[in-house]
Structures are given as C-alpha cells and as structure tokens.
Amino acid sequence: MSTGDLEALLRVTARGYVGESPPEVAFGTVDSPVGRLVLAATARGVVACSYEDEHAVFARIHRDISSFIGPDPRRLDPVRRELDAYFDGRLRTFSSAVDFQLVSAFTRTVVQMTAAVPYGQVTTYHDIAERIGRPQALRAIANALAANPVCLFVPCHRAVEAPGALGGYAGGPVAKENLLRLEGALG
What we know:
Elements: H1 3-12, E1 25-32, E2 35-41, E3 46-50, H2 54-64, E4 69-70, H3 73-87, H4 105-115, E5 123-124, H5 125-131, H6 138-146, E6 159-160, H7 173-182
EC number: 2.1.1.63
Keywords: DNA damage, Methyltransferase, Transferase
Protein name: Methylated-DNA--[protein]-cysteine S-methyltransferase
C-alpha cells in the first residue's frame, strides 16, 4: 500500500469524517466476541467481514473494486446490528446480501456450500469436495475456506476438517470453536 493510500485510509476512517457523497464501498470495523472484524459493503451487499488487518482489506478493495472507499453508517450500521444480534444468540440467519467480488470462482463455489449448512450444524471438507465433484481436493477446499472474505455472513466456520477435528479458520481455532459453541454445534 502506498503512502497516499494509507493516508486516504486514515482520513476516511477517522471519527467525524463526512464525505461529500456516499462512497462506492462503505468501510469500517466492529469489535466482536471473536475479535475485531473489518467490514465493507458495496451497493450489492457485504463484500468483507474479515479478521484480516484493515490496511490489507482496504488495499484489496482499492485494487479490485473501487478507490472511492469511506465510512457510510447507512450501509454498515445494519450489518453491525445483525452481527450484534448473531452474537447475542437472537439471529441464526443473516439477511444482508453478500457481494462476492473479492473471491475467485472456485472459492465462491466452496464458500457457497457452507452457506447451505444450517445454524448449529457442520459439514466436512470431504463432504464439500464430494458435492463439488472434486473428492481429492481437500487442500484446495481448505484454502478456499481460508480465503473467504465474508466470514460469518458466509459461515465457513461450519466446515470442519473431519469429525472431531475443527481444522483451520481465518479468525483462529479459538474463534472457530467459540462460533460453533455459540451455534450449539459443539457440546
């Protein structure tokens, strides 16, 4: 990220910043019980709900979607309210639309499989590989799940390595375990 991009990020994420017109990509953060999440939303929907460093998410959005990025409570506050309700145990299914602009076709196929896994249940990497017709692609499945830029909204935490083995997660193993406990998928 260039110095100019970093300065732009710091300017638009500063408290009290009000842009002249709504940005193409609303950008912000939220502190959650499983860590700080970087949020971004386009007119299509949530494009990022990520554990990554906000500078990295900002740079990827700047490179792949738009350079007109800034705060927009009108778009992000509903996303934050849904996350609050989820963590309070009052929400089982997110209603915010998801924008898959930051994922490859393969990753989109994989993470959409996890979207079909109901709250409180899990699937395995092997099950996903079988369903997409690539039964030997377990490492590719794990990598695609790790690349999910819209964690929680597309619940990749519901995909486990195998019964009894949680596998990796972008937010770390403790976050994955906590999310699955919250949903009642772990005893």
